[in-house]
Structure formats: C-alpha cells, structure tokens
Specification:
Shape: globular
Number of strands: 3
Largest sheet: 3 strands, antiparallel
Strand content: 25-35%
Helix content: 25-40%
Distance between the termini: 12 Å
Length: 61
Amino acid sequence: MADKKLLVTLIKSKNGRLANHLACLKGLGLRKINHSVEVINTPENRGMINKVSYMLKVEEI
C-alpha cells in the first residue's frame, strides 16, 4: 500500500478555514487553487486528506 501514490489537487480556496485544516494542507504541500502534489498513500497522509476532503480532488496514480 505504501508503494502507491496519490495525486492531490486543491480545488477550493483556503481562505477562512480552520487552523487545523490549513495545517493539513500545509502538511500535504498544497499552496494555491489548482496546485497538485503527489503524496505516498500512507495512513498519515490519508488522515490529512480525509480531514479536508471537501477541498480536494484525489486520484490514484
């Protein structure tokens, strides 16, 4: 499972969000709208993705 990667894209603005949601976005490496990053599919990254899933688009690579 750890070998797989996810392509995570921020699709909504981070303005006015909760501090812990912003921390999750920073931890994932997302900066601005339509910015995409590849992250390894680990439980830690999945937890951050689940917390802010309403702002993200996630694809398996």
